[in-house]
Amino acid sequence: MQQEKIWTKDFIVLITSNFFISLTFYLLMTSMALYAVKTFQSSQSSAGLAASIFIIGAVFSRLIAGKYVDVIGRKKTLYGGLVLFLISSLLYFPVESLALLFVIRFVHGLAFGVVSTVLATAAMDSLPIARRGEGNGYFSLSSALATAVGPFLALFLSTNYGYNAIFLGGVIFSILALGSAMLGHVKEPKLTVQDRALLKSGFKPGDFFEMSAVPVSLIMVIAGIGYSSVVSFINSYAIEIDLTNAAAFFFVVYAIFLFISRPIAGKLFDSRGENTVIYPSLIMFAISLLLVGIAQNGLTLLLAGALLAFGFGTLMSSLQTVAVKVAPHNRIALAISTFYICLDGGMGIGPYIIGLIVPLVGFRGMYLILAAIVLSLVFLYYQLHGRKAAAEQRYKQIEA
After folding, report:
1. What stretch of H or E contains 329?
2. Is it the case that residue 2 has pLDDT exceeding 60?
3. What's the sign of the alpha-carbon dihedral 107, 113, 114, 115?
4. What is the pLDDT of residue 42?
5. Which of 68, 180, 229, 366 could disulfide-link to 16, CB 3.0 to 4.6 Å?
6. Which band of pLDDT confidence, cut at 50, 70 and 90, is reported for residue 383?
7. What is the pLDDT of residue 384?
C-alpha cells in the first residue's frame, strides 16, 4: 500500500515561510541581550528582558490566535501577521532608548505568535494523520536550520558590520517570509455552524486553551526555560570562558544533528509510540546542559550542541505532535496555540529569571542547576502522559 504524500507544494511553501520567520527570530534573539548591554548599558536582567519580551508578546497573541484564527480565516490571519512582522522589523532602526526597544520587541513578538501559530496549524492539517510524527519532524527542521544560520549570522554581522546589519537582515527575511507564503494555498478548516459558535463565544479557559493538550504542553514551560539559557546567554557565557570560536559554531552543530535526529525520531514516534522518543530526549537534554556548564574546551561545548539536538530539538517536535494527537480535529489550532504558549512562556520568563540567578551562582552554576531540573522532567512526563501512552501502546500491540 502506497503511503500518502508529505511533500506537497503547499507543505513546502509553509516550511519555507516558517524558515524565514524563524531565521528572523533567532537572528535577533541571540544578539538582543548583548545589544542591550552594549548600546544602553543595561543590567543582565534587563538585557534578558530585551530578548524575552518578544516571546512574552508571542504568548499574548497566541492566546487570541488559537481561538480566532479558524474563525477569521487562516489565510487572512497569516498575511496580516506577516505584514505586521515586516513592519516591526523595520522599527528597530530608529530605536534610541531601552524602553522603546522593549515596546518594539513586544509588538514584533505579537506578530510572530500569530504567524507561527497559523503556519504550524496549516502544516499539521496538510499532513496525512498516519505520518504526522514524521511530517512534523520535517516541518520543524525549518526552524532547526534557522537555529543554526541565525545565531551564526548574527555573530558575523555584529562583529563585522554592526547591529544595523542584523536589523537589515531581519527586514529582508521578513519580506521573503511574506513572499513565500503568498505562493501557496492555506487549507481552511471545515467548521460546522456549531464549531464556529463555540470558537466565537465565551471567555473560559477552555476557549483559549485546548485542555487535552495542557499536560504535555506544561513540560515545555520548563524545557523552554532550559533552552532559553542557551539561546540568550551562550554568547555572553562563551566570552567569559574564552570559547567564542566554538560558540560561533554551537548552533551549526545543533542544526546538523537535528537534521539527523528529527526524521528518525519522527518515524520511531509513528511506529513505536511517543515514549520511545521522549524519554531519551529528556535525558539527553539534561546531559547537554550539564556539558555546557562544565565545558573547558571547544569540543565539549560542541558535543553539548549535538546532544541538545537529540534532546530539546527532538523533544519539542515530539510533544507538539502529541498535543495535536490528543486534541479533537476541530481544535488543532487551539492545541498548537496551547503548546506554543507554554513553550514561549518558558522561553519568555527564562532569560529574565536566569539574568537574576547568574550574578548569584555564575553561568556554570546556572547551567548545572538547569540540567538537574530538566532531568526531573522525566518523572513529570511519566505522571502527565507517559504512563497513559505506555498503556495505549501495549493495547495496540495486543490488537495487532
Report:
1. none
2. no
3. positive
4. 82
5. 180
6. very high
7. 92
Give the amino acid at 184: G
Once rounded to an integer, what is the mean pLDDT over residues 31-55? 83
User: In this structure, what DSSP letter does residue 4 have?
Assistant: P
Predicted structure pTM score: 0.76
Pick the CATH number of 9-399 from 1.20.1250.20, 3.30.720.200, 3.30.360.10, 1.10.300.10: 1.20.1250.20
H or E element that contains 100: helix 98-126
User: Residue 339 is which amino acid?
Assistant: F
Environment class of residue 195 by beta-carbon count within 10 Å: exposed (0-12), middle (13-18) or buried (19+)?
middle
Joined together, the cell numbers standing for residue 52 give: 524575552
For 295-311, how does the pLDDT look when each residue is reduced to its tens digit (9 = 90+)? 999 999 999 999 999 99
Q: Which residues contact 62 (CB under 8 A, 6 or more apart)?
A: 113, 114, 117, 337, 340, 341, 344
Farthest-apart Cα atoms in the chain, separation: 65
- For every residue of 358-372, which 3-state class applies, written as one string? HHHHHHHHHHHHHHH
Q: Domain-by-domain residue ranges, the chain?
A: 9-399
Burial class (CB in 10 A: 0-12, 13-18, 19+), 193: exposed
Query: From residue 5, how far is each of 10, 131, 245 by CA, in Å?
Result: 12, 9, 42
Residue written as grid cell 497573541: 61
CB 112 within 8 A of CB 57: yes
